[in-house]
Amino acid sequence: MIPIKGLLALSFTISATANAETIVYTADRMLDVDSGQMIDDPVIIVTDGKITRVTDQNDPVEPADARTVALGDVTLLPGLIDMHVHLDANPIYGGYSSLQFTDQFFTVQGVANARAMLEAGFTSVRNVGSDNYSDIAYKQAIDEGLIAGPRITPAGYSLGATGGHCDQTFLPPSFKAKSPAVGDGPAELRKKVREQRKYGAEVIKVCATGGVFSRNTEPGQQQLTLEELSAIVDEAKLWGLKTAAHAHGAAGIKTAIRAGFTTIEHASLVDKEGIELARQNGTYFGMDIFNTEYTQSEGKKNGVLEENLLKDRQIAQLQRDNFRAAHQAGVKMVFSSDAGVMPHGIAGGQFKIMVDYGMTPLEAIRAATVSAADALGKADQVGRIRAGYYADFIAVDGDPLVNVRELEDVDIVVKGGALIKGQ
User: Rounded to whole angstroms, how far apart are CA atoms 141 and 393?
Assistant: First the structure.
């Protein structure tokens, strides 16, 4: 038996060799996220990066050549899933301060952000918008074992309208700055869906309304028509892709739901009709209700423009109140932090805010595990500790059902059977 302290040096660089053997993980407790029950003395058998059996120490049937890792007095949970991140973003460079760097600076610095998300316990993320297809590059490098990071569902560039939130809105006409993925009219936007899929996108992200951290857009303003949004969803479904709609305003939210989007991002100004539409259609809300503490306290120092901070202040409390209302109404909810607007490593701070605004700790955990996995279309791969799933799990030294803030400082991270973080 190998004690946990003997594995401190184990890193992602040896995951390929770790996956080639059978490893038996033991711990004192494990949370079954489906039942909400705590399982005593769990035993998880992992071969080639996947869970082959989950049992307990009363039934220790293990392969003779297995290596046992005793995690000790900890609570195991499935690896967490964040459904809204931007790995190539860095909040310390706001407003125009990013223009001091060369073109690929943000792609390169995002490598550290990917590792920060993983070490925070997020073994899977959905990256909903990047420049230079950087999220696809991170996914490929992680899958090749070259860098550390979570399993990524990438979107490539976010689609949007000319002059809208997903376009380039900070520069004057002489720069001719334009996002490669903006389009006007159903036909143009169908083509943009095909382009993103061609270059590796596994989800299609769209800006249906204005936003907080763009210029010359208002969060509540709808920017794409029902015909345009429906064409995007129809084209994405043709290619077997899920869809995500950035939508703050009530009209844009309802239009995106009617168009058939899988998830609504932010949903800040949703009204009662929009909440009911989401409930009836089984649409997921991903509401980033934590990051405003960071943006308001650090934004000005980081160069964020006052007009953007003002928009952030105006919608922050409304979004939190609407999170409570949507949850109470039975809308399906997923964990979405918008990491990149704030530092990636603190994304787990959102669990407390979700509980403060109406969820039980178990419901918040399910939003970041089983519900997120379902919204990803990967409910048979991630989000549970179960035979046949990826061996992605985390551990904390307390009980997250009693104190959900345990998830702000995850003690142990295992991805694909390899110990990434342990103490």
Answer: 21
Residue 58 is predicted with a pLDDT of: 80
- Cβ–Cβ under 8 Å, residues 225 and 262: no
H-type alpha helices, 156-242: 186-198, 226-238
| Residue 124 DSSP SS3 | strand
Cα(206)–Cα(229) distance, integer angstroms: 8
Closest CA to 128 of 341, 290, 301, 356: 341
Burial (0-12, 13-18, 19+ Cβ within 10 Å), 39: middle
- HSE, side-chain direction, 13 A CA sphere, residue 158: 28
CA distance 394 to 412: 5
Model's pTM, two decimal places? Answer: 0.94
- Nearest 5°: phi and psi at 43? -130, 125
pLDDT confidence of 127, banded at 50, 70, 90? very high
- Which ranges of 261-412 would DSSP assign to H, the alpha helix? 272-281, 292-298, 306-329, 350-356, 361-367, 370-376
Cβ partners under 8 Å of residue 238, min gap 6:
none
- The full length of the chain comes to 423
- Express each pLDDT in 62-73 by its tens digit: 677 889 999 999
